[in-house]
Each structure stands twice: as structure tokens, then as C-alpha cells.
Design goal:
The protein has 193 residues and is of the alpha+beta class. It has helices at residues 15-18, 32-36, 42-50, 115-119, 142-150, 163-180, 185-189, and strands at 70-71, 97-103, 135-141.
Length: 193
Amino acid sequence: MEHTPDGTPVGVDDPYAVAGMCDHLTDDGRCRFALTRGDADPDFAAARRADDYACHVGPDEAWRACPHYRSTTDGRECARCGLAEVRLAHEDARPLVEEHHLSYRDGSGSAAGNADTASDAASNANGDTDAGPHEITVALCRWCHAKVHGSFARIDDDASPDPEAIAEREGRRTREREESAFETARKRYDQGE
């Protein structure tokens, strides 16, 4: 299983197996990285420009071949137990669902994670070229996040939300409904006059 820089497990053997579409892929199949940030990698941008900015990975989605591949989460639902996020607009409460890194890439472009990820940059088990390391994240609720880092729990386990997680979510939904209930300004701000 892959590990974080601190040595805790990330919950998968191969981050690419659970990774989603590239964050830079546009709806029409073009590379947004080459379109908007070409100055960061001029050779890559020139190659994409020559091919009308088409994503060079192709329909087989062998994402590890792209040097700028990145797959980050939207953070709306836990990938392990399915707990949905409930955010309250005017509260500074800790989110129910957090970003969990399966693979790391630091600002300099070098691996900040597992040594295997950095040393296997040439190829993987399938023989595909690995241009990584890449940043790959999924959404996990706080409770699943702790289980994955603290034990041998895996992202793809068949899991149900913890009772604590359900209680916290329902408490937030109750407060959300209370806030959305209509109350006249006179009633809300009436000081008992």
C-alpha cells in the first residue's frame, strides 16, 4: 500500500486506479494547462499547440503518462462511506468531508510522498510511462480519514458512515433547516416591546 511522507497508509495500492479525470481536461478534450499556463512548460505547451491543444493521453485514460496530470476532489461526499458534506454558511465549523492525498506532488515538481512513486518514474507494472509524481486526492469524511491513516482501512472498503458522523451531519441539517425557516424581521428583532 502507498504511504504518506509521514509513513501512514493512504488506503490504496495504486492511486491511479481510483484517480479521476485530469483537472486540466476541458469538456472538448483539450488541455487547459497548455492553454492557460503554457509558460510553465513551454515544450509541453508547444507540443499541445501543434496538436490543437488536444489531450495527448487519449481515450484509454493512461493518466500517468502526462507530466501535468492532476486529479483533485470536489469534496462533496466521502469516497469510502458516502457521507455527504453539509456546510453551514456562517459557521466556522470543521468540514465533515476532507481532502485526502493518495499521491503527492510538492511545489517544485518532485515527489513528496512514497519513495516508490518517485523511483518508479520510468514505468509501472503495465509498462506505461510514468511522468509522475502527480497530485491525486479523494474526499473522505473525518472518520474514514482517521481510519485510513490509523489502520489498514482501504478507500475501496464497503463501509457505512460512523454513528458519530451521522449525528454530526443531522445536527448540521437541523441547524440548516432552522436558519431557512421564515421569520418576519419584526419577530426576529423584536426586543419584547
